[in-house]
Amino acid sequence: MIAAFRRLGPGLLFAGAAIGVSHLVQSTRAGADFGLGLVWALILVNLVKYPFFQFGPRYALATGESLLEGYRRMGKGVLIVYYILNLGTMFTIQAAVTAVTAGIAARLLGIESSAMMSVMVALLCFAMLWRGKYSWLDKSMKIIVLVLSISTLIAVLFALGLKPNLNFTQVLPVTSAEWVFLIAFMGWMPGPLDISIWHSLWALEKKKINPKTTLKSSLFDFNIGYGVTLFLGLCFIVLGTTVMFDSGISFSSSGATFAGQLIGLYTSLMGSEWFVIIAIAALTTMFSTTLTTLDASPRVMAHTTKLLEGKYANNQLTWMLILTVGTCLIFLVFAAEMGLLVQIATILSFLTAPFYAAANLALVTSNHMPEKNRPKKWLRIASVLGILFLVGFGITYLTVLF
Q: For residue range 197-221, what is the model confidence (pLDDT) as tens digits?
């Protein structure tokens, strides 16, 4: 059992990256506003996105190269598009997850959250990754995800004791505001599709550490991580339902403020003795995301720059420093525009999902992929249907938004 747990790695990193604002804020808000009525949406979007996330480790272990090399084989233009998209969103996304983490940490410490607190969290994550690099991240994420799962499960079991008779009736949104929420909720569950690129790089790093890693074991590792994200998404919907549904409380649109309200409401109903468990569940949720995104974005930018043969910094540490400094500047200079910046970044990430889905499918079914390792027919059919779903979803999003 312990040996099997040690072999896990990139799948849990995937879980750490995916389980963040989408789970802590969006899933909880879904439960607070709709009860268990949107469980169908959570399950559906996880099924739709599954193939495209799975293609990351599949391609990496079958070919010995990441999705980035694969994109380069498909044409330099594909890699350039990815480079521009990632450069345009990575700073604001990093700032968003760091701000929520800092808000929860401040609540746990009993101090006022501030821009400086967010800067301190960003610098702490940088220092941890700078000293430990991938091997440390691989080991620490196992502990973080384990703590997250246990503390969340305890909170759910206790909350179910408060409201054992739940209504499982599934619903559809009625108002335009509810539709906007549904689209945003499904768009960010379990995470942006470019995490598949991160996963392909993590899978190769794991292969370096453990040469015995096979495609089968890597896909098993991925399925474990993916299962954890789905399970915890359901847990946070249940928490939102049991503790918040029909409470009459108005929640802040700010992720950090919402997290504080979330912890405060839990402890007011469950008792102050549960404060630490609830706070740890929330903090590990966001800290895992902050840490993994700070590792992944510089990793892919360094690799992409190298593939494009750029003349500028092409090592991960330099890009990590650039991202950390840029994130801190956003806190100190652009704090007032934070909401707009994050909205732009999230819209871009959402609307580019069909691009990543189509690119990943084209790659794993091309001649660059060994025929024996290509996805089976049912998975290819599911992928095509998934792309149609994502395109239709994007069109619906733009229609409702504008």
A: 988 988 888 888 778 878 888 888 8
Cα 120 to Cα 284: distance, rounded to the nearest angstrom: 16
Contact 284, 23 (CB under 8 A): no
Q: How far apart are alpha carbons 293 and 93 in whole angstroms? A: 9
Which among 41, 92, 13 is positioned nearest to 292, based on CA atoms? 13
Contact between residue 58 and residue 326 where contact means Cβ atoms under 8 Å apart: no
| Centroid of chain to Cα 338 | 19
Phi/psi class of residue 254: alpha, beta or left (left: φ > 0; alpha: ψ in -120 to 50)? Answer: beta
Q: Which of 18, 70, 38, 134 is nearest to 373 (CA)?
A: 70
Cβ atoms within 10 Å, residue 182: 20
Phi, psi of 246 (to 5 degrees): 65, 25
Decide which of 103 and 136 is more confident.
Answer: 103
Nearest of 363, 353, 305 to residue 71 by alpha carbon: 363
Q: Which superfamily does 17-401 belong to?
A: Amino acid/polyamine transporter I (1.20.1740.10)
Pick from 383, 386, 13: which is nearest to 198 by CA? Answer: 13
pTM: 0.84
Q: Which band of pLDDT confidence, cut at 50, 70 and 90, is reported for residue 341?
A: low
Kindly report, residue by residue over 295-336, the tens digit of the pLDDT: 888 888 988 888 887 555 558 888 999 999 999 988 887 766
d(CA 239, CA 4): 30
- The token pair that represents 1 in the structure block: 């059992």
